[in-house]
Amino acid sequence: MTMTLAVTLRDDSVTLDTLRANGSVPAVIYGPKQEPTSVVLDEKAFDKVLKEAGEATVIELSGLSKSVEVLIKDVEFNPVKQRVMHVDLYAVDKDMEITAHVPLHFIGEAPVEESKEGSVTKVHHEIEVVCKPGVLPSHIDVDLSVLQKVSDKIHVSDLSIPAGVKVELDPEEAVVVISASRASGSEEESSEPVDMSSIEVEKKGKEDVEEEKA
After folding, report:
1. Which range, of 113-127, 143-157, 182-196, averages the lowest pLDDT?
2. Taking CA 161 as the corner, what is the angle to CA 157 and CA 87, rounded to the nearest 5 degrees?
3. Interacting residues of 99 by C-beta distance below 8 A, sequence separation 6+
4. Cβ of 7: how many Cβ atoms within 10 Å?
């Protein structure tokens, strides 16, 4: 999936404060075959693209002398207002491999969690991949419905990875594991009968020892 974002070349005579006051965001485009170029984005338009595309979707920039395809490489936020302050855009080359972090989308319900025998622990929420821009997935689905019992896990090797995409993790690395439910453990412990006779014998033995000492 490719999204489009309009940009304009930045006028150095306009201050950053003025840009931001007018609802714009400064950005820089760079890459292996792209000279660093300062541009300006519309803040609202970029916010929408960021939410929909994230950092694992190729974005086509319009408004320049030629079309440029980029990935969102870094976003600087105002720590107080949480507004976008600056954006780094990495210009990709369709013939060169890139490294990107692809988010994992967890789908389905884990039967082991529905039965309250265990709870799902997500070890990874994204994975690093290497591929050409044209085959970069926007996300990778992880089906939780295969988790039937506490010992079950989902490994990297279990994921459905598109052709041409290499995952930079060990195939045996766990993506999702199941943690035993505390509630089930407590029930097992409380379900064991208490032998009252042994308690009485132990108590009587202590009393006899105390009498002998006296």
Report:
1. 182-196
2. 120
3. 128, 129, 130, 168
4. 24
